[in-house]
């Protein structure tokens, strides 16, 4: 148990990344002191989850707004009457690859990507369907000083093109999908972000690239960029940096997109998985040179 908290119980996961929060109900607005502790636990552990918390759509929205404004969620049609909630639904007989099935940080192609994402589970499969989270802080901290020195000055180019572009993966999809995804030319736009991101709350440095949304590194040749990124991807998602999150119904998980990657595992064909997702707006990523 993390003994720094008075109003909530915080149990860190074994490798010190990710934590379970109990001792409170999140279906009503949190008292200021409780909210402060939840935010503190989130900053320390990057991924926090609250088991056994049934929530209506309105309660999920209200919980989200305690952490900031809603983020902007492009390319996916939200729930009717709830424009800030995405329903992540995969039917038992669905053959399309499950949504989010590759390492990424949510919407990193935006000028101001969401600081956090909240996922609330309604129906979870008896097997599979875990979400993996990778700790971008430790992946950065463990690089050699020479490598850090090089990374600190690099700028990566992010784009939604690979999944959501007119020639992207969803455009080419042949299997039926329950989620309504909109492919668009707009997805081919790019946005530069520092490859090493300084977290605005903790001040810690994290690697900020992903195989889904990072297209390359400014100023490097294609070969240099591809080699460096593939090294970083395999480095960032080594077991030692990964927390495997096992869901149960009515669990709310809040993760920090500024210092983590996540990857939704499949393995539950034949079973329905149903989740509701909101995002919390964020700031423009700041690099090492700017602080
Ligand atoms: C996502 O937001 O990338 C999906 C996560 C999940 O469904 O586990």
UniProtKB/TrEMBL annotation:
It is an enzyme of class 1 (oxidoreductase). Keywords: Dioxygenase, Oxidoreductase. It comes from the Bacteria. Its EC number is 1.14.11.17. This is Taurine dioxygenase. It comes from Pseudomonas umsongensis.
């Amino acid at each position: 148990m993390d003994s720094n908290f008075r109003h909530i119980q915080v149990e860190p996961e074994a490798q010190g990344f990710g934590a379970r929060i109990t001792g409170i109900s999140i279906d009503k607005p949190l008292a200021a002191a409780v909210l402060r502790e939840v935010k503190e636990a989130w900053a320390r552990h990057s991924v926090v989850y609250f088991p056994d918390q049934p929530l209506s759509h309105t309660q999920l929205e209200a919980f989200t707004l305690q952490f900031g404004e809603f983020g902007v969620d492009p390319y996916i049609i939200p729930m009717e009457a709830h424009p800030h909630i995405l329903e992540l639904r995969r039917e038992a007989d669905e053959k399309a690859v499950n949504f989010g099935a590759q390492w990424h940080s949510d919407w990193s192609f935006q000028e101001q990507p969401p600081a956090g994402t909240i996922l609330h589970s309604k129906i979870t499969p008896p097997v599979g369907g875990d979400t993996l989270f990778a700790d971008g802080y430790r992946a950065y901290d463990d690089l050699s000083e020479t490598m850090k020195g090089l990374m600190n000055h690099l700028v990566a180019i992010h784009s939604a093109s690979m999944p959501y572009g007119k020639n992207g993966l969803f455009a080419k999809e042949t299997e039926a999908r329950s989620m309504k995804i909109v492919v668009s030319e707009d997805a081919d736009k790019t946005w530069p972000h520092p490859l090493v991101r300084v977290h605005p709350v903790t001040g810690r440095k994290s690697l900020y690239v992903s195989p889904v949304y990072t297209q390359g590194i400014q100023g490097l040749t294609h070969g240099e960029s591809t080699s460096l990124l593939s090294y970083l991807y395999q480095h960032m998602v080594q077991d030692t940096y990964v927390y495997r999150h096992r869901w149960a119904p009515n669990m709310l998980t809040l993760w920090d997109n500024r210092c983590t990657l996540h990857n939704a595992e499949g393995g539950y064909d034949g079973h329905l998985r149903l989740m509701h997702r909101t995002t919390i707006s964020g700031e423009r990523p700041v690099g090492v040179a700017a602080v």
